Amino acid sequence: DQQVKQNSPSLSVQEGRISILNCDYTNSMFDYFLWYKKYPAEGPTFLISISSIKDKNEDGRFTVFLNKSAKHLSLHIVPSQPGDSAVYFCAASKWQGGKLIFGQGTELSVKP
Amino acid sequence: KAGVTQTPRYLIKTRGQQVTLSCSPISGHRSVSWYQQTPGQGLQFLFEYFSETQRNKGNFPGRFSGRQFSNSRSEMNVSTLELGDSALYLCASSLGSPGQPNTGELFFGEGSRLTVL
Question: Which residues of B touch A4 (CB under 8 A)?
């Protein structure tokens, strides 16, 4: 039972353009959402988070949007850079600090 | 501040053997979580420990077990290894104290890559 789903295993984007990574969840009890980035041979690192009381959170080039009615969140990277090439995981928890449930990941490739 | 340290980084075992993986959390972090990463499955939650007590457990068979010591260091053990146990095992730490404000962010180690032949 995959409660957090990232349906696109991979995404390729041109440098300077926008990257949009999508994530869907099924459990309406989820209240807190995070995005992590993972380079090969490294552990995932925290990127950005959003609480269910918000519908948008921005941090530099990264913006996360949350649509609670659709149980959908997305990560926008603008402008995309080659260094952004990595696997991106979305994660959800029932409360801030609770157990994180991760999606399968989307591999982003930003081409120069 | 030192990050999360996992040992060993790589190991090869054969079916039926058992393995123990170790994790040292960031100093001051009392919660340690373990995840299994396999291609196509993402990060699957194994268990979480806080103050030497298992606080959460994922849907893995009893062959997977763990523990946490008084210094917050944690170990996980997999017995009777199967080919499907080949994966990257990631440990993550956080402040994790219920009732105390925190970002919910987990700090991951680099993982232990287990290959079962």
Answer: 42
Confidence of residue B101 (pLDDT cuts 50, 70, 90): very low
pLDDT computed for residue A61 by the predictor:
97
Interval B52-68: pLDDT, tens: 999 888 999 999 999 99
% of chain B at pLDDT higher than 90: 74
Q: Which of B29, B43, B50 to mutate to test the interface with A (most CBs of A within 10 A)?
A: B43
B33–A contact, CB cutoff 8 A: yes
Among B55, B106, B107, most A C-beta atoms within 10 A, so best to mutate, is B106
A106, A88 Cβ separation under 8 angstroms = yes
Could you give the count of Cα atoms lying within 13 Å of B20 in the half-sphere of its Cβ? 6
Query: Which of A43, A97, A102 is nearest residue B42 as measured by Cβ atoms?
Result: A102
Q: Please tell me the distance in Å from B21's CA to the nearest CA on chain A.
A: 15
Query: CA distances (Å), B61 to each of B81, B82, B85, in order?
Result: 11, 12, 11
Q: How far is CA B113 from CA A33, A37, A83, B79, in A?
A: 27, 18, 24, 16
- The pLDDT-based confidence of B96 (bands split at 50, 70, 90) is low
Distance from CA of B100 to the nearest CA of A (A): 9
Of the candidates A62, A59, A106, A103, the residue with the CA atom closest to the CA atom of residue A81: A62
